[in-house]
Amino acid sequence: MALTEIPTPAPAPTAEAGAAAPEPRLRRMSFGLLMVYVAILAVNSGGNGILLPNIVSGIDEASKVGNLAFVTTIAFIANIFAQPVAGALSDATRSRFGRRTPWMVGGALLTSGFLLGLPLAGSVLTVALVWLVVQVGVNALQAAATALVPDRYPPTRRGGVSAMIGVGITIGNAVGVIVAGGTATRGLLPYVVLAVLMVVVVGLFVTLNRDPSSADLPRQRTSAKDFLRGFWISPRQHPDFAWAFASRFLMVIGFYGSQTYGLYILRDYIGLSDAESNSFAATMGVVLLVGVLLSALGSGWLSDKVGRRKPFIVWSSVVMSLALAIPLLVPTTTGVLAYAFLLGLGFGVYISIDLALMTEVLPARLQGESSAGRDLAILGLATTLPQAMSPSIAAALVTITGGYPAVFVSGIVFVMLGAVLVRPIKAVR
């Protein structure tokens, strides 16, 4: 997955969804989901941003750019299939532990177990296969966790929990880079910390927020053809959704291209040593987090106040484009810190407004059926797919041009194209 991921809105409740919990339980569950997303994003950001680049460069320094692209592209398979399939299967799960808990626990254990085995991989192919399994676990966990929103929250409380998930994503991105960057030279320690964080957080969550038994729910029978057909949303029938999906897709590619190769950029473009780059990457994570929090906390409220979404998306795109231009003009540590802060400011606006925009272009099918796990995962593909593709695109650009400036230039292009594709949306101002 996972993105590293922007939260996606939830369908309306159905007969199969559990009754809304009392207010104190909802507050506790909201904080719990925040922590679950911290754990998910910590694994993904720490793995993609620090741990994988270090392992890959240690195996073959000369071919590290292409090899990292290969590893992340293999994980691309998990991002395409794992989350939608796990979401759909969790919808159909019938057990005394509920529909979501088995998938959350199973996903956490799979993620943590194979994460601990990652530093033991001795070849690029082995690294790719181990990371593939890690991503399967992460996607299964995320699909089940996100589906708890329509399962347990009334419509009037879903905006609040979505905001909490967004904060968890932001914090998790920073935590992963800080933990991995700060302990990268200490053997197994970063892997142990991230694995323990995952198991403890998910274990506490499912214990304190018990999923009602689903053993007595009606069993849904469907053919393989109908099962697969459920993942398709026609762009012709739902053009606004298609434009919003494409806009998010391009925006995420633009944002994550430079993030994935951040460690190599610090070493080969800025000129830091391996040890300095690991430490400085952690500092950049903190700066990015501050920028995101400063802009995200108020922009959603302001958008609701003025009743407009698209101008905020355009503004955030301009800010992120300016941020991506800074390392081109100022290739120094000061320049990349300014880049991280400004990129955080722009992305903070985007991550809060895009969620609201997506809720207003959902096809009716995604609002009224009892298939939350599947439907939310379909929306999540607009984030997970480009996040998985961006390393390969960036690697091709670096190989063709012979340097990292092309990564920043392409980021500007993708981000601005994402802003342009928001304009045709008719259902949103």
TL;DR?
This is MFS transporter. This protein is mostly helical and 429 residues long.
Give a written overview of the molecule:
This protein is mainly α and 429 residues long. The chain has one domain (23-213, 227-420): MFS general substrate transporter like domains (Growth Hormone, Chain: A). 76% of the residues lie in helices and 0% in strands. The chain contains 15 helices and no strands. It has helices spanning 23-59, 64-92, 101-117, 124-152, 158-183, 189-208, 224-229, 239-260, 262-270, 274-306, 310-329, 333-359, 365-368, 372-401, 405-420. The longest helix is centred in the N-terminal third of the chain and has 37 residues, at 23-59. The protein starts with 22 loop residues before the first helix and ends in a 9-residue tail after the last helix. The chain crosses the membrane at residues 34-56, 68-89, 101-122, 161-182, 188-208, 241-259, 279-300, 312-330, 336-357, 404-422.
